[in-house]
Amino acid sequence: MLTIQTPEAIMFWVLAPLSVVAALGMLLVKKAVHSALLLAWVMITLAIFYIAQDALFLGIVQIVVYTGAVMMLFLFILMLVGVDASDSLTETIPGLRPIAITAAIGFGGLLVSLIGRATLGHDAYGLTQANSEGNVEALAQLLFSTYVFPFEVVSALLITAALGAMVLAHHQRAVPRVSQREQAIARFRGESLGSAAGLPNPGVFARHNAVDVPALLPDGSAAPNSISATLKARGDMLDSTQFELSEVDNTVTEEK
Amino acid sequence: MNPYNYLYLSALLFTIGAIGVVVRRNAIVVFMCIELMLNAANLTLVTFSRINGTLDGQVVAFFTMVVAACEVVVGLAIIVAIYRSRRSASVDDASLLKR
């Protein structure tokens, strides 16, 4: 016969509402990164519940595998993909949200009333007897005797998943990679030889020498391709005319 | 308190995850909601294992965790593959067959 001690009851009534609030917050917050952090919190509370329910091994695995590996993988992919318009909470299919919430309340109500009405025919036993020689030992005994075939199947599944991820991540080039030789040929056979020796450096020497000022060509015009494309896209490019020498003295004076 | 309260909590978390799958548009958030549903199912398994006094529920929960790990690997690879070709992680944008 299972009796639940008061500390566990207190822990449940403190952590269960917190985990439900965090799960709801996952739906309501705008940023996907915040959703991931809230989900990590839900997973940590679940790990505490597992440990409280005499599932020590699963509790540790929950923290190591879920909050450690899986959530970090989620955050990594989030950072890789970046934030885009799909984070917005606007409804794209009209009427979807009320229907979804109504259906969910119906489904949740069904589950809760089922749990409330169901009877097992016996009292809760508790795991003190099953865990008498330690939770990990008892689990290992089950895993490697009764469940040894599913265990092997799961290993095949893991290998398949690793292979599948590699196949999905494989990227076939549409065009072959341009080699250095081909780049050099393209530079010299292009329409102008102006860039054959490389692009001009930014900065108007003698007056201003910064990366955000275009270089002055020999004819006095500015060379916009001397500026980094990033600076150009950000709009940080300065106008080089203000750094030009205002009047270049072209008259040649006779040396006496 | 009786252990059935854990089952109610698990039902709530599962329902919240189901709403999330339907309502959210970011594929990664949808995927995280699926993880929440899997975790809720695991809590049910662990609770029933305790109620019944046998460890079989915990073994099944352990297998669920392994399957969930595989699912995360393949699912995130699919999301990254879609993002690379469509430049978007929104589930609404991957509707090429519709048009």
UniProtKB/TrEMBL annotation, chain A:
Location in or out of the cell: Cell membrane
Keyword Cell membrane carried by entry: yes
Enzyme Commission number: 7.1.1.-
Bilayer-crossing regions: 12-29, 36-53, 59-83, 95-115, 147-169
Leading EC class: translocase
One Pfam family here: Oxidored_q3
Protein's job: NDH-1 shuttles electrons from NADH, via FMN and iron-sulfur (Fe-S) centers, to quinones in the respiratory chain. Couples the redox reaction to proton translocation (for every two electrons transferred, four hydrogen ions are translocated across the cytoplasmic membrane), and thus conserves the redox energy in a proton gradient.
Entries under PANTHER family matching the protein: NADH-QUINONE OXIDOREDUCTASE SUBUNIT J, NADH-UBIQUINONE OXIDOREDUCTASE CHAIN 6
Family: Belongs to the complex I subunit 6 family.
Protein name: NADH-quinone oxidoreductase subunit J
Organism: Candidatus Planktophila sulfonica
UniProtKB/TrEMBL annotation, chain B:
UniProt xrefs under InterPro entries: NADH_UbQ_OxRdtase_chain4L/K, NUOK/Mnh_C1-like
Gene Ontology BP annotations: ATP synthesis coupled electron transport
Superkingdom of this protein's organism: Bacteria
Reaction(s) catalysed by this chain's protein: a quinone + NADH + 5 H(+)(in) = a quinol + NAD(+) + 4 H(+)(out)
EC number: 7.1.1.-
Keywords on record: Cell membrane, Membrane, NAD, Quinone, Translocase, Transmembrane, Transmembrane helix, Transport
Membrane topology per record: Multi-pass membrane protein
Subunit structure: NDH-1 is composed of 14 different subunits. Subunits NuoA, H, J, K, L, M, N constitute the membrane sector of the complex.
Protein's name according to its UniProt entry: NADH-quinone oxidoreductase subunit K
Gene that specifies this protein: nuoK
